[in-house]
User: Which sequence fits this backbone?
């Protein structure tokens, strides 16, 4: 009787150990894959280097829209189908790049103070597959429609 | 300027904050003192404090709503999120459009839940309400808007702030401090949707309800009543699971129906931030039920209940602190609350963990370890799977947080979330879902009795066979070939069949216990529905004309979109499809107006009827002004097959100021699939139209003639004495012709004007937009009683559409309803149980 109990206990210990091992293995797989599939935030220069080196993985670039001295956005072009557009973006290192986007202009685009584009280089052209905007905080906006 | 109401609101905010602190302190004392007399005293104080707090919260809601509904645009909140045109139900949704309002909504629900707890559970009132009141104090601090003197540090962001205080540097306020804007900024048109009215309250009720099980758990640890907190917490956990789940699904449905993200789930960080706590909550419900049945998994339940609440706080932090700013499509405004949010998160996380660690050794554990043939074992595996499922989403979603943490320690990390979110998450979540599907099928058999290997085989054989047959039928008919999709289908069908078997036997014996089986049937259907609708979604608006829409468009665009000219049928998806023209949306009536039937005014939201327009509830006569939603243009598209017609109204919002074209789909629902249609390119209102060369005809009154293949009649020519926009003197002459044109879909009138003003001839042509015709009255020939009519034609109106087929998406929606029903049955069972215990004086 005692032996049987011991035996069962032993098996059970093993079982919960196996369970813990499986969970740990799964968690590690998840973490590794997260790191592996993660994209990166880079500048246009680096993105271009990556692209010419054959790395077509989509990356994130953070920057601003190009503006003239009066703060007007320049370089905004609507595509012929009216549902795509291109713009000139200046990344955090000051590099300018034309970015094309095959979807309509997101609302508030021109009001954004910061733009994140996700995409990759196609030759000399940066093709964005997604655009994220950071809009000014309500305490910074000083324009009122009268 | 209405200063009083804002001051009153602010007073309510401060009151709610202080009373929450008072209630927390009083309830804390009530829990810790041992003398009965004192306990009663503190309990009464705590209760009074919390009731006053609840009244203050209600006061905040009412004052803010008054500010919004009375259009006090001197207040930032009203100015920023509403305008005078919004109907009442959108004024309600303005309330939670801003972050401050959503905090208030959250507080409101928790105040309601707190009152329910006070009145249903005397035994746990002290400790549970201590936690409640503390959480309320933290939330109230978020909208406090008080600047600490000398430190220049603002606690919270008040919704009652005046516009001029929000924008002190605006030139208008420097010149004119008493200036009140005449109208507000309005509600984002994309949010003007009934889901905006019901989705946020549901979601925040879901958030709020997670506090109840958490408070019971903390109370249990605190009072060392490790076993007893589970029973009162369980119905709340189930309620929370149902409401939070419903909130998430509503969000998905809203995205599908209106926002044109193309699907119902996009693995955006904001979606993930509520999905993860919900998964853990579901895991937690399972371990709690296991504990109730067999005294195992108590520690797991404690850990999970705490995790759920901490994850809710974490998701609040993620979505509101601005940390996700570079990672999510939803743009977040940082209100400067990130520090406060972090303190809120860390306080409850560390306090709960510390308490759990201190009590850990004392928490009873069951000595017997689970056998492989016990339900506890399988449920535990299921709970672990759900936790890993959540973990897999949590890790990448938190990448911006990892970057910040690495930055804190002096490192730099440029890791970004996966670029293809949908592909990345689906690849993992699919397999977790397969495991969950199989476990919820097998687990249910163990649920009702611990059975041996032989019994299990006997029990499982029939459902397994039925599932296989059903699976074979589904994959053959649905043409499923992808291996991972096959597995997902099998898992879904398996859990559906096994749970259906259990449901059948339960219906005979004890239908009140069938909540689990029903919920799992819902899950099975959802898995199958998701597999089909997401995995086999396909473009059906294929350009089968052999002609490019435009050389300037990309190849993909030309292939996957259909160009429709008005009144020229094409075929698509086995239907005849025909574009009938642009439509406008009346502001106060149902239905649509043909845009050709009205004339534009300077105000985008007002048009003038050119013909008699019958609308629901009112018939507008010629020259009446009709109020419309100026930002919306709809495109009437008719589908026809075998004598049945169905009309779609996909919408576009053309807004040059805010950026190009915002489109919303319309969905044609059939039993087996949804046809999801949106416009992908439209004629621009400002575009210069190219008219053909003028064609001249001489005709008599009542004479029939043809314009561009349409039959037309010159009905009358009358002298008029008023022409809009042109002052006429006695010397001037103006004549208006009335030309009737028989269109394929309804009749049209053109009313061109011929006038002699100051001895000069002028002509005002009239345009029939739907038909692409411009008619002018060129000349009058009194000698022959004839009139010269000029006709210009142009390319007909057109629209480019894209349509997607979403097969069997109804299976998903029905599955969600069944899941919710399952929750409902389970909740009512647990409430019955709770009542019984209460009658016995156990609670």
Assistant:
């Amino acid at each position: 009787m005692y032996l049987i109990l011991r035996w069962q206990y032993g098996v059970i210990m093993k079982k919960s150990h196996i369970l813990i091992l499986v969970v740990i293995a799964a968690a590690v797989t998840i973490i590794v894959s997260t790191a592996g599939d993660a994209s990166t935030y880079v500048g246009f220069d680096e993105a271009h280097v990556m692209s010419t080196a054959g790395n077509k993985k989509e990356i994130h670039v953070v920057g601003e829209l190009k503006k003239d001295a009066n703060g007007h956005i320049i370089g905004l072009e609507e595509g012929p189908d009216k549902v795509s557009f291109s713009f000139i973006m200046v990344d955090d290192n000051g590099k300018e790049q034309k970015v094309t986007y095959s979807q309509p202009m997101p609302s508030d685009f021109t009001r954004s103070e910061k733009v994140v584009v996700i995409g990759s280089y196609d030759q000399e052209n940066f093709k964005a597959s997604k655009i994220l905007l950071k809009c000014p905080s309500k305490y910074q906006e000083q324009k009122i429609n009268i | 300027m209405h200063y009083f109401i804002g001051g009153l609101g602010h007073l309510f905010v401060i009151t709610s904050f202080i009373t929450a602190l008072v209630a927390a302190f009083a309830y804390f004392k009530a829990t810790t003192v041992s003398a009965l007399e004192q306990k009663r005293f503190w309990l009464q104080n705590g209760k009074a404090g919390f009731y006053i707090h609840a009244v203050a919260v209600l006061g905040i809601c009412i004052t803010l709503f008054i500010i919004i509904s009375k259009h006090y645009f001197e207040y930032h909140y009203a100015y920023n999120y509403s305008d005078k045109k919004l109907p009442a139900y959108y004024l309600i949704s303005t309330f939670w459009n801003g972050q401050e309002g959503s905090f208030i909504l959250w507080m409101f629900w928790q105040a309601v839940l707190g009152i329910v707890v006070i009145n249903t559970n005397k035994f746990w009132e002290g400790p549970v309400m201590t936690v409640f009141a503390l959480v309320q104090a933290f939330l109230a601090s978020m909208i406090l808007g008080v600047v600490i003197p000398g430190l220049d540090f603002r606690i919270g962001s008040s919704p009652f702030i005046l516009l001029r205080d929000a924008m002190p540097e605006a030139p208008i306020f420097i010149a004119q401090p008493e200036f009140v804007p005449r109208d507000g900024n309005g509600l984002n048109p994309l949010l003007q949707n009934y889901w905006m009215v019901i989705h946020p309250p549901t979601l925040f009720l879901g958030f709020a309800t997670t506090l109840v099980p958490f408070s019971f758990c903390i109370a249990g640890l605190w009072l060392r009543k490790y076993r007893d907190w589970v029973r009162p917490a369980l119905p709340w956990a189930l309620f929370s699971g149902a409401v939070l789940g419903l909130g998430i699904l509503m969000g998905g449905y809203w995205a599908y129906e209106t926002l044109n993200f193309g699907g119902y789930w996009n693995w955006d960080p904001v979606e993930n931030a509520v999905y993860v706590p919900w998964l853990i909550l579901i895991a937690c419900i399972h371990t709690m039920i296991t504990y109730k049945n067999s005294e195992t998994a108590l520690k797991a339940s404690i850990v999970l209940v705490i995790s759920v609440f901490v994850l809710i706080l974490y998701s609040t932090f993620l979505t509101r602190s601005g940390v996700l700013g570079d990672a999510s499509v939803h743009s977040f405004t940082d209100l400067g609350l990130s520090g406060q949010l972090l303190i809120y998160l860390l306080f409850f996380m560390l306090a709960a963990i510390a308490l759990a660690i201190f009590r850990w050794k004392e928490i009873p554990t069951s000595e017997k370890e689970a056998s492989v043939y016990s339900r506890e074992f399988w449920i535990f595996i299921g709970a672990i799977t759900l936790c890993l499922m959540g973990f897999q989403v949590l890790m990448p979603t938190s990448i911006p947080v990892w970057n910040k943490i690495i930055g804190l320690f002096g490192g730099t990390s440029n890791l970004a979330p996966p670029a293809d979110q949908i592909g990345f998450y689906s690849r993992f979540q699919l397999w977790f879902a397969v495991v969950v599907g199989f476990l919820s099928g097998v687990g249910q058999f163990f649920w009702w009795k611990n059975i041996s290997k032989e019994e299990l085989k006997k029990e499982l054989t029939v459902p397994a066979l039925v599932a296989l047959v059903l699976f074979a039928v589904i994959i053959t008919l649905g043409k499923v070939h992808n291996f991972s999709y096959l597995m997902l289908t099998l898992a879904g069908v398996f859990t559906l069949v096994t749970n259906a078997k259990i449901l059948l036997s339960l219906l005979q014996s004890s239908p009140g216990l069938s909540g689990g089986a029903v919920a799992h049937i819902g899950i099975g259907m959802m898995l199958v529905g998701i597999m089909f609708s997401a995995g086999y979604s396909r473009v059906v608006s294929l350009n089968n004309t052999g002609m490019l829409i435009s050389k300037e468009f990309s190849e993909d665009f030309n292939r996957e979109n259909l160009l429709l000219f008005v009144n020229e049928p094409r075929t698509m998806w086995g239907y005849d499809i025909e574009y009938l023209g642009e439509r406008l949306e009346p502001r106060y009536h149902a239905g649509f107006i043909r845009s050709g039937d009205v004339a534009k005014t300077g105000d985008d939201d007002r048009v003038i009827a050119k013909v008699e327009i019958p609308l629901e509830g009112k018939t507008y006569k010629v020259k009446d002004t009709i109020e419309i939603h100026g930002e919306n243009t709809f495109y009437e598209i008719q589908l026809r097959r075998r004598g049945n017609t169905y009309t779609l109204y996909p919408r576009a919002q053309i807004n040059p100021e805010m950026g190009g074209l915002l489109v919303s789909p319309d969905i044609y629902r059939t039993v087996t699939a949804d046809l999801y249609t949106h416009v992908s390119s439209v004629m621009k209102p400002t575009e210069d139209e190219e008219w053909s060369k003028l064609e001249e005809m001489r005709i008599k009154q009542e004479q029939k003639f043809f314009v561009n293949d349409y039959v037309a009649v010159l009905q009358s020519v009358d002298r008029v004495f008023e022409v809009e926009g042109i002052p006429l003197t006695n010397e001037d002459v103006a004549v208006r012709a009335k030309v009737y044109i028989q269109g394929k879909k309804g009749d049209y009138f053109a009313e061109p004007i011929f006038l002699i003003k100051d001895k000069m001839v002028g002509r005002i042509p009239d345009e029939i937009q739907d038909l692409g015709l411009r008619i002018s009255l060129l000349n009058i020939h009194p000698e022959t009683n004839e009139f010269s009519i000029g006709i210009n034609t142009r390319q007909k109106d057109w629209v480019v559409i894209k349509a997607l087929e979403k097969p069997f998406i109804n299976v998903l929606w029905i599955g969600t309803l069944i899941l919710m029903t399952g929750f409902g049955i389970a909740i009512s069972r647990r409430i019955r149980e709770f009542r019984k215990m209460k009658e016995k004086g156990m609670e």
Residues 1-12, 137-142 of chain A have pLDDT under 50 and may be disordered. Chain A has two domains: 1-38, 44-134. Chain A touches chain B through 62 residues (CB under 8 Å). Residues 45 and 95 of chain A are 7 Å apart (CA to CA).
